[in-house]
Specification:
The protein is α/β, with parallel strands linked by helices and 335 residues long. It is built from eleven helices and 13 strands. The protein has a five-stranded mixed sheet with strand order 1-7-6-4-5, sandwiched between helices. Strands 8-13-12-11 form a four-stranded mixed sheet, with helices on both faces. A two-stranded antiparallel sheet has the order 2-3. Helix 3 packs across helix 4 and helix 8 crosses helix 9. The longest helix has 22 residues. The chain binds coenzyme A (COA).
Amino acid sequence: MNAPRARILGLGIHVPSQVVTNHDLTKMMDTSHEWIVERSGIEQRHWVGPEDGNFTMGLKAARMALADAGCDAAEIDCIIYATLSPDYYFPGCGVLIQRELGIGHVPAFDIRQQCAGFVYGLQMADSFIRAGQYRKILLIGSEVHSRLLDKSTRGRTVSVLFGDGAGAAVIGVSDDPARGILSSCMHSDGSDAECLAMQWPGVAAGREGFITHQDIDEARIFPNMEGQKVFKTAVKCMPEAVQEVLEKQGLAVSDLDMLIPHQANLRISEMVAKLLRLDASKVHNNIQKYGNTTAATIPLCLSEARALGKVKPGDLVCTVAFGSGFTWGAVLMRW
Ligand code: COA
């Protein structure tokens, strides 16, 4: 008997209502709308207000995805939660979703592949479903960056790029074997693990404690990034991953109807399309409105593309992501 095909049955998103424009950022740090747009394409991002944290946004996106899938929460038999900005150091956000949805004692996995978190989660969900382990999986990607960025001029290279938001998908057995996840590939290379990282607080060798006053005074507690190295590695790895998932199916870039790239930087997406020789009309970007929302960007972008009619049943759609670790991967789907 053939293994069941996994398919995204529903999508949901949530972004906080507070919009922060590039102009707003100029009141906090020495930057400009022109610099940010020229280097990244970002025009605005959303930041949470006091009413929201990571899992509360994830929950709103999850409820929307369940409604979109026509699926009752009680049918979910596995939760996968991708984030780099969890509400608590432990436990992870997955169990908070389990509690709020009031579903049974289903497993809750928390995964940590940063910007590649959602595509890693898609591969996990696909594998679980094809193996017959679970039948309806709730995958969530959610981030609250605004509470962990350095919003002074010192942190401007990183802080202008990131925004808050959440996205979710219900993944289940496809009723049409031609539609669903066709192939996926995931990769990692830890050689440059610290070049895009938040290393404090933490318990690494040599530390006096999880966090010290000195760590705060010396501003070690914020994310650090070697931007140019990240850029160069992303534009190499992302096209390779797209080619890899297509080749697994004997397909070519010319067969693609839509590419949904991780939204790290509009220049990265444009370069990926150029290297793949893919027309701009076959790539959907929305970083202009949201900034980089890390584990939430793929569902935010995919959901918007579907709403705009750019992703339709039967289309060949590829999602590709690259992030801290480095971790990267792609998922090819017949929508
Ligand atoms: N506003 C104004 N000026 C800024 C600034 C900001 N927000 N951030 C940095 N600058 C300044 C720098 O201080 C530097 O000034 P100097 O020339 O006087 O020293 C100048 O702009 C150039 O900085 P640099 O870091 O070399 O810019 P860049 O061309 O590499 O662009 C990034 C920076 C971050 C936009 C770019 O490297 C990038 O997008 N990298 C990938 C990041 C990414 O995708 N991360 C997430 C991956 S999942």
